[in-house]
Amino acid sequence: MTAAMRADAPATDGLDEAARARILAKAALFAPPSNELADGRRDLVGLSREELAAAMAEIGEQPFRAKQLWHWIYHQGVTDFAAMANIAKPLRAKLAERFAIGRPEVAADHLSADETRKMLFRFRDHEAVETVYIPDVTEDRGAVCLSSQVGCTLSCRFCHTGTQRLTRNLSAAEIVGQFMAMRDAYGEWPSPKGETPRLLSTIVLMGMGEPLYNYENVAKAMKIVMDGEGIGLSRRRITLSTSGVVPMMDRAGAELGVNLAVSLHAVTDDVRDVIVPLNRKYNIAELIAACRRYPGASNARRITFEYVMLKGINDSEADARRLVELIDGIPAKVNLIPFNPWPGSTYETSSGNAIRRFANIVMDAGYAAPVRTPRGQDILAACGQLKSKVAGAA
Ligand code: SAH
Ligand code: SF4
């Protein structure tokens, strides 16, 4: 398809359906390993409620057992069947013979001077990802930044993760497992109820990988996280960041209804084609149209446009003016992210003045334009610095 055709052709439902099917088929090629351990037991983490009930039926147990297990796993956070007080001992033993309640292994744990914490989590096949906890500096709350893939196919030019080839997608268990293991580190079990303050109070899908290229596992994990009888984090406390996988944006909005963040980073296709190569497939006009369609966007639930500030590339006053024209009418805020360097990166971050000028133009147009303070830079935990393999390593 030529660029001109691409820009003019409004995606009909039929076309979108075909595009979605292609994206899901590609995701399946990078499927995670099964939930079976080396000793034949199966990990219960990551199963949907229905799958958990089916697992109980398979061993001849009643459906209410699944409800009990769900509570122990996601509300109490236990990893040992022996702790399940309302289940009789013989059944606990039977469960322990067949199943496990897994966590990723903590392969590294770094604490930044600003309290940001980065963990390297290793999974059963020895693949690993990084997960970051970013505590609020003034209040007892904070965001957990989850990874969705080992590596990324998209190679955005300013992103460290983009230099790590995609090895595979993460399973729902591995996505929810990052959050649960991070909660273990802070002892935040049982899951706080309702509006009780939480240290780990929000989830941002902004770690390694493109979540909409691993949609099914991400969606399954988020449904587990949002379940009110378990972790119980509301969709308002979850933000999914995408570099612009347009056909999947509608589906995520309709099915999950989580907050959306869009990695815009440039306001002309010429620039975006280079720094976010996915733009050659879904250009700015298509991306903005998908944002306008995103269900649930309102003043209370604004779309976040992420904009990495790259000196001399995308940070002029003309760029800022073009940005506000592009997003005109969308309930939105613009998150300005000073570029975080990483070993081998070639860009420079914009000057403080350039960022202020840019922010002022956006704010004058009526949009919030917070400048994201880099967190955890000393441990390479800031946006775009994550990578779980070093060059040359297997
Ligand atoms: N793949 C998804 C989510 C992960 S990246 C996405 O691209 O949206 C989270 C955010 O950090 C994105 O907006 C990403 O573009 C931005 N980012 C990547 N590299 C960066 C860097 N070196 N400095 C600052 N932000 C960066
Ligand atoms: Fe992948 Fe996001 Fe990094 Fe782009 S910015 S390479 S989509 S992780």
TrEMBL record:
<keyword id="KW-0808">Transferase</keyword>
<keyword id="KW-0004">4Fe-4S</keyword>
<dbReference type="GO" id="GO:0002935">
    <property type="term" value="F:tRNA (adenine(37)-C2)-methyltransferase activity"/>
</dbReference>
<feature type="binding site">
    <location>
        <begin position="263"/>
        <end position="265"/>
    </location>
    <ligand>
        <name>S-adenosyl-L-methionine</name>
    </ligand>
</feature>
<keyword id="KW-1015">Disulfide bond</keyword>
<keyword id="KW-0479">Metal-binding</keyword>
<dbReference type="GO" id="GO:0005737">
    <property type="term" value="C:cytoplasm"/>
</dbReference>
<dbReference type="GO" id="GO:0046872">
    <property type="term" value="F:metal ion binding"/>
</dbReference>
<keyword id="KW-0819">tRNA processing</keyword>
<keyword id="KW-0949">S-adenosyl-L-methionine</keyword>
<feature type="active site" description="Proton acceptor">
    <location>
        <position position="130"/>
    </location>
</feature>
<keyword id="KW-0408">Iron</keyword>
<dbReference type="InterPro" id="IPR004383">
    <property type="entry name" value="rRNA_lsu_MTrfase_RlmN/Cfr"/>
</dbReference>
<comment type="similarity">
    <text>Belongs to the radical SAM superfamily. RlmN family.</text>
</comment>
<feature type="active site" description="S-methylcysteine intermediate">
    <location>
        <position position="383"/>
    </location>
</feature>
<feature type="binding site">
    <location>
        <position position="159"/>
    </location>
    <ligand>
        <name>[4Fe-4S] cluster</name>
    </ligand>
</feature>
<feature type="binding site">
    <location>
        <position position="340"/>
    </location>
    <ligand>
        <name>S-adenosyl-L-methionine</name>
    </ligand>
</feature>
<dbReference type="InterPro" id="IPR027492">
    <property type="entry name" value="RNA_MTrfase_RlmN"/>
</dbReference>
<dbReference type="InterPro" id="IPR048641">
    <property type="entry name" value="RlmN_N"/>
</dbReference>
<dbReference type="GO" id="GO:0070475">
    <property type="term" value="P:rRNA base methylation"/>
</dbReference>
<feature type="binding site">
    <location>
        <begin position="209"/>
        <end position="210"/>
    </location>
    <ligand>
        <name>S-adenosyl-L-methionine</name>
    </ligand>
</feature>
<dbReference type="GO" id="GO:0070040">
    <property type="term" value="F:rRNA (adenine(2503)-C2-)-methyltransferase activity"/>
</dbReference>
<dbReference type="GO" id="GO:0051539">
    <property type="term" value="F:4 iron, 4 sulfur cluster binding"/>
</dbReference>
<dbReference type="Pfam" id="PF21016">
    <property type="entry name" value="RlmN_N"/>
</dbReference>
<dbReference type="GO" id="GO:0030488">
    <property type="term" value="P:tRNA methylation"/>
</dbReference>
<protein>
    <recommendedName>
        <fullName>Dual-specificity RNA methyltransferase RlmN</fullName>
        <ecNumber>2.1.1.192</ecNumber>
    </recommendedName>
</protein>
<dbReference type="GO" id="GO:0019843">
    <property type="term" value="F:rRNA binding"/>
</dbReference>
<dbReference type="Pfam" id="PF04055">
    <property type="entry name" value="Radical_SAM"/>
</dbReference>
<dbReference type="InterPro" id="IPR007197">
    <property type="entry name" value="rSAM"/>
</dbReference>
<feature type="binding site">
    <location>
        <position position="241"/>
    </location>
    <ligand>
        <name>S-adenosyl-L-methionine</name>
    </ligand>
</feature>
<keyword id="KW-0411">Iron-sulfur</keyword>
<dbReference type="InterPro" id="IPR013785">
    <property type="entry name" value="Aldolase_TIM"/>
</dbReference>
<dbReference type="InterPro" id="IPR040072">
    <property type="entry name" value="Methyltransferase_A"/>
</dbReference>
<dbReference type="GO" id="GO:0000049">
    <property type="term" value="F:tRNA binding"/>
</dbReference>
<dbReference type="InterPro" id="IPR058240">
    <property type="entry name" value="rSAM_sf"/>
</dbReference>
<comment type="function">
    <text>Specifically methylates position 2 of adenine 2503 in 23S rRNA and position 2 of adenine 37 in tRNAs. m2A2503 modification seems to play a crucial role in the proofreading step occurring at the peptidyl transferase center and thus would serve to optimize ribosomal fidelity.</text>
</comment>
<feature type="binding site">
    <location>
        <position position="156"/>
    </location>
    <ligand>
        <name>[4Fe-4S] cluster</name>
    </ligand>
</feature>
<keyword id="KW-0489">Methyltransferase</keyword>
<keyword id="KW-0698">rRNA processing</keyword>
<feature type="binding site">
    <location>
        <position position="152"/>
    </location>
    <ligand>
        <name>[4Fe-4S] cluster</name>
    </ligand>
</feature>
<keyword id="KW-0963">Cytoplasm</keyword>
